[in-house]
Amino acid sequence: MAYLFSSLLRVYKGIKIADNPAESAFGIVVDHGLREESSQEASRVTQELKRLGLKAVIKPLNWREHRWHGIEPTTLPNVESVARTMRYQALGSTCRYLQARSLFFAHHQDDQYETVLMRLLSGHGYRGLQGIREANEIPECYELHGVYKSGLLDDQMQKHPFLSFRPPTREMKRLRYILKDDRAAEPWDRIKSYLSLGDTSTRFPGHLIRDLDPTVPYLTPLHSEDGGVTVYRPLLEFDKARLIATCEANGVRWFEDRTNTDPTLTTRNAIRQLTRVHTLPRALQKPSILALARRSRRRAQLEEAEAHRLLVRENVIQDFDPNAGTLLINVSTLWREEPLQMRRPFALARDEARKRSRRLLATMAIRKLIAFVTPDLHLPPLTNLDNAVDRLFPDLFGMHDLVPVAQPKAFSIAGVLFEPVLEVDSVMWLLSRAPYSSRQPLPERKLPGYLNYRAGVLRLEAEGDPQPSRHSHWRSWKTAKLWDGRFWIRVSACVAAKFHVLPFLPSSAKPFRMALPPRERDNFERILKHYAPGKVRYSLPALYSVEGSGDGEDSEQVMTLLALPTLGIHVPGLERWVKYEARYKNIDITLLGSAKRKGSKVPFLGHPGRPTGRQGPLQARGNQRNGGGRTSPSKWKPSTSQ
């Protein structure tokens, strides 16, 4: 891999990929520190990389915390998985520092063979036999902003963004030539404005819009994060012997970890020894296993594409609110049965034969919907969603499971609460963050520093100046932190500050309301009623200041609610010394576009009716029959369990 990049940059100097210059390639050498000679070996690899004309950096893994507790890393029963997590996090942090968006691994065909064979022996089905993917988001870095599915917006806000979304230079020259006659009549800058070439609002995949409704308070929708580091494996089609031969033919040293040949160390090593020494049956040999992986991958891709197509075609997602993290869906249109008089004689048998495949597609569709709201870093496996399929699609029961269909009831899975919203002819479901369990700690993010909120407010009132001091120095934005697996939140302050990000606690609600001026207080109540009714509001992130009460050992920490970042509401005067910003996690935006393209009438949460105007999937959800605002859950048509 290093030799190929060295040759590429040497032969094609100034090469551009998607009109972005590839200036250099860095070799990241990870020293696991699990062998005595690992440091010397890492140094030799670095020297070889520099000889090839590449920049190189060594990243040793830090086992200090384990050794501090008297645990030697090599004695850990899960040392492989722990080392893998630490390795990926070291790689991700280094890529963020280098502003690198692409990470290339030299996995080869033999690695693919061993991986699939190992999963086959473990009893995996076809979905687990897809093998190593050619490209995917970097794993194990889920809470590192700018590394995992995030960071693109910050990059595009810079004066000179690292990644350009402008049309390629060649295309711009061709466009100028085509419009040369028009340029004589109008300036080129005006022509570019017509083509939206300078409009940054349409560049970002996570740029969400909301239709304006005068009957409800307008709340600017949060951006959805995108970007991050992508892992590529371009050598999966080449076996190890060919790669070694390429290195030998070009005078490049080949380095190999000697522990890879110890069959007693890991399962992969044992399989590697087995395939090298013994002749396996034809069905377990490399060509057969690789063909099995290709078929499994193709089948899984087709199923994923079909589930995606169903969600978009049937406009299942009726509304998504990134500020509250809620999703309204209507699955009643999927596989709608024909009227009895229109059914053909073999329709029952046909539907029964299709139930198995439809149930699988329904399971995959539910998992895609859960991804919008769940706080979990990993989506649940398909086998764990059978109960959700039974509740959302009662018609997909098997013949032996036929029972009278009960009224839909609320349930939760993967941290997502499914609540039925009954309509005249169908049932819609509201997906929101499940209430926090009293047996588990609340999600919390701490930021260092100190802030005396009361003293600061008194000082501001005494000064009587509504504007920030020209002598105050704003610190740079802190790196955004992922809160509750859903919201990326960051702050900046012009004073030393200490913040905690916790849920909107009921005990803090009344003091926060009383701190707001009457007009803002009324607006706050309307926003909560419309966008976060009922218990949904208590799953919103809240920014608290932490202050010391008392002196010495008897001092206690007192938290004061300062702001609700996703709603843009804060105590008076906060903007003078604290700035905050919230964004929603990365989601599949393509699932939201069908309603607007079709111009369908999107139902709004809190009322079973439909608005009269054409609105997109992110419409403000006003237009209520009884005036503005959003009907509380108590006014929904509930099931008997509510």
Automatic annotation (TrEMBL):
Pfam families: ATP_bind_3
Signal sequence interval, chain numbering: none
Annotated spans, Disordered: 599-642
Biased segments, Polar residues type: 631-642
This enzyme's EC code(s): 6.3.4.19
GO BP field: tRNA processing
InterPro entries for this protein: Rossmann-like_a/b/a_fold (IPR014729), TilS/TtcA_N (IPR011063), tRNA_Ile_lys_synt (IPR012094), tRNA_Ile_lys_synt_N (IPR012795)
Entry keyword annotation includes tRNA processing: yes
Tree of life domain: Eukaryota
Catalytic activity: cytidine(34) in tRNA(Ile2) + L-lysine + ATP = lysidine(34) in tRNA(Ile2) + AMP + diphosphate + H(+)
Gene3D superfamilies registered for this protein in UniProt: HUPs
UniProt keyword annotations, A-Z: ATP-binding, Ligase, Nucleotide-binding, tRNA processing
UniProt domain tRNA(Ile)-lysidine/2-thiocytidine synthase N-terminal: residue ranges: 24-139, 226-273
GO molecular function annotations of the record: ATP binding; tRNA(Ile)-lysidine synthase activity
Record HAMAP family: tRNA_Ile_lys_synt
Protein known as: tRNA(Ile)-lysidine synthetase
